[in-house]
Specification:
Blueprint: E1 4-11, H1 15-23, H2 25-31, E2 38-45, E3 52-59, E4 65-76, E5 80-85, E6 88-97, E7 100-108, H3 115-135
Helix pairs in contact: 1-3, 2-3
Amino acid sequence: MATKLTVETLVNAPISRVWNAYITPNDIMQWNTASEDWHTTNATVDLRVGGVFSSRMEAKDGSFGFDFEGTYTKVVPNELLEFSFGDRTASVAFIQGTNGVTVRVEFDAESENPIEQQQQGWQAILNNFAKFVQAGQ
């Protein structure tokens, strides 16, 4: 049984803007990075149950890159995305509150890297997402 990790952030923006920034390839390429020395060079989204998404993440110096891809298993606009990637699963909840939208990502940890590193990496990406959405208003 995989360990479930959770990261979340509060985004001070309308839910439609938050949702659209999470599922729009051009937006994903702007925020989908855990550190300044990485970037996302390509992103595709087929937003439907059974649809596939993919993001190409690369070190800016060209030394390393990988594709993060998966398949949507549940899509509830402005509320929830669930997806599988490899033998792991994740969910992204969009929770409207009085101070904005809480974006909560729960995902299965992998066994190659320490739990803390995975948590920090996914949290850093989510923090970039919040900054991107709030800056775009």
